Amino acid sequence: MKKIRGLPVPHSKNTAGCAPVEIPPPLEVTLPMKMHSGSPAKPVVAAGDHVKVGQLIGEADGRVSSPVHASVSGKVKSINDTDSVTGQKAISVTIASDGEQSVYEGAAPPPVTSLAQFLEAVHNSGVVGLGGAGYPTAPKLTLKESVELDYILINGAECEPYITSDTRAMIDEAEYVAEGARLMKEYLKPKTIRICIESNKPEAIQKMRGLIENDAGIEVHVLPSLYPQGERKVLVYNVTGRIVPEGGRLTDVGCIVINCTTAAVFAKYIKTGMPLVSRIVTVDGSAVKSPRNVIAPIGTPIRELFDFCGGLKDDVRKILLGGPMMGAAVPGLDVPVVKVTNAVLAFSEKDAAPPVPSACIKCGRCIAKCPMRLMPSSIENAFELKNLESLKKHKVNMCAECGCCAYLCPSKRPLAQVMTLSKNMLWEARQK
Question: Average pLDDT for residues 68-92, to the nearest whole number?
Fold first, then answer.
């Protein structure tokens, strides 16, 4: 089977050997009620309330939503309605920590003996797609009766440069990853579960193989190290040979993709009763003095992570949440860690200065290496002309926004940004 195309980008997995270290609880945390796709959670606390670690502070609102839990113990300082990054309306709860990290008395392992109880537990854990997508996990695992589930792919590819948080989860929390696979095998009853790991993670491969060697129907699938190997449609094709149709769902081809850390979180909740209140975050980049992996409470300001890693160098130019290929730049150090924050990267002036674009030379490199087999240069032309029919014809909505086109472009065209803006243009046209 011919594999989907990709790029051998520099791995820069500098922190792969760094076991995550828990940071001290910050003085306060800010917990957005929308850290996931779908509807934001609704606050169930008020300013002045005292809360404990693991206590529900935001209940899910709708089928596609996710609850939010206190990550520190202390007093609710305020409930704000503005997102500090985008400036848009988005409710968040700020908790002033008492430094004690007292655990909520109601945090107890839930009973799980049926599919319904399993799905309820996944929902109550607060877990979402922790690889960056942020889609609530419970509705993803809630299948229609007509779906015949052949594969569950546990995504441990982690193909983006620098990020090693999933790698460490498969090493340091491997028992929970394996247990998450067993739970899905028991209650969702797929024909096969494959834990998909790139070949540049030998310790994770060895650890996971050892834990599931006696589990029938669960296996480790080793992938070549190639970006964007972990993109869900790419992963499905490269592992199963199945093509997800335009506008289709993975379940249309009998597949589900679940991030490895996501599986570990709901397995841990079912065993301990502690929902998603912290996560492993990779702190790295050329402007970080001592890169490492940390365990941070959700809502921690990213400045606390950098301070724990020795601080930032004087020539810091850009800070990203996520990886350098698909991550988002942030305006300051008060931005909080959210559920999907797998990395916080800081880069120096030398590494972060934006390139100066020049005219397209029609070399075709963006077309040759697009994993979705699109024509980014033609899409850019259609975007500039605001030609909606041409954008549809060139299937811009199939774009995975992986950034391969921009990475390869010798003219330094902002192709990745154009792909996103083109999708937005089509979406806005549909709303009208």
Answer: 84
